[in-house]
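User: Sentrin-specific protease. Structure?
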Amino acid sequence: MSAFSERRSKGKRSGIDFALAFSAPPSKKAKFQFRPLNLFKSFTTASSSSSSRARDPFVAMGNALARLFGGIKASTSEVSSEKTLGFGQYKSLVVVGETSKPDARLVTRKGLDARSVVEKVPAYKRLYEETKRRDERLSSLNFELKLAEDEILELRKTAHIIDVEDEEEEKNVNDLFCPLTEEDEEEVHSALYVGNDRHTILVTHESSNIEITKEIIRCLSPGGWLNDEVINLYLELLKERERRQPERFLKCHFFNTFFYKKLIGGKGGYDYKAVKRWTTQKKLGYSLIDCDKIFVPVHKGNHWCLAVINVKQKSFQYLDSLGGMDGLALQSLAKYLVDEAWDKNNVEMDTHLWKQETVSHPRQRNGYDCGMFMLKYIDFYSRGISLCFSQEDMEYFRKRTVKEILSLRAE
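Assistant: Predicted structure:
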């Protein structure tokens, strides 16, 4: 049996095997000789096999010639697509690029569905796309960072943690948070915790006739509720501070803790006559309508709040460290200011156009620091600076207040 006949008897071999049949036994000088007729028959025979993908003899011939003359070496994933190409269809294949791997050429086919041919992205393009995606992620991260910075800035504003630029304001803030010395710490500790005689008088403020005993000052220990004596003495010290250095502090009036109760304590509620004599020229030496701000402590049974009459800016403010609001209190104070201006200065004042401001302010996070928050609202506002403190500062402010009361001098 000849070599061709032997190969032909094996029906399921590929067409390329038939195409490589010799016309004579091999020898050193033998040359390839194709038999066109037999080659065609060979492809025809191969196409008659059970493979449903090679029904057209030209399909088999195209595949054979593609491999024989340096055609596309199909990878495993491309074999099924390549076997469907006939000889005529093969001519429409266009090689558009290749990677370093011999079986990873990029092939596209004109006029065919793109899904029928596997396309691979060249290395440079893949790197470009990856870099672009990284750039997009970086842009996204930059945006998120900017958003976070804006949120932090907004939180700083909400918490009133400010960056001080004005030199005078910076000095005021530094004064407000000046650390206590070891001597101050010992004095504060002794006043709060040393000794059992609660009736021992520590200091007496002569102009207001307020006495501070060990029992009274211990309300400034951690967890204590501030009492009238401590609050009223501290407000007296703030007024004395303003007189000492009027260039550094706003012109303010500080009502004591009994004023508001007296103002609204009449039979019908509001009662100007009950407080009419509290603000005579002889007692104060100035008129309320000439002040920048007027501070009014408001006691709610077991909670301290603050009402502020901002005469200079023609507005009313209500500061509650628990976030509450009392519009009736502001209405009563607006009516009081009108009556006061007419009684003391013979001036008709119209407060209907004054604003009732809802200002953002530091809040307490416990059930006992409301009095300390109220005093610090007054202290900071009387300096003309923002409320740049928080709950974490209350322990320090309690000690500082003890020190200032013992020395009868607010700094």
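Residues 2-54, 71-118, 157-165 have pLDDT under 50 and may be disordered. The longest strand covers residues 293-299.
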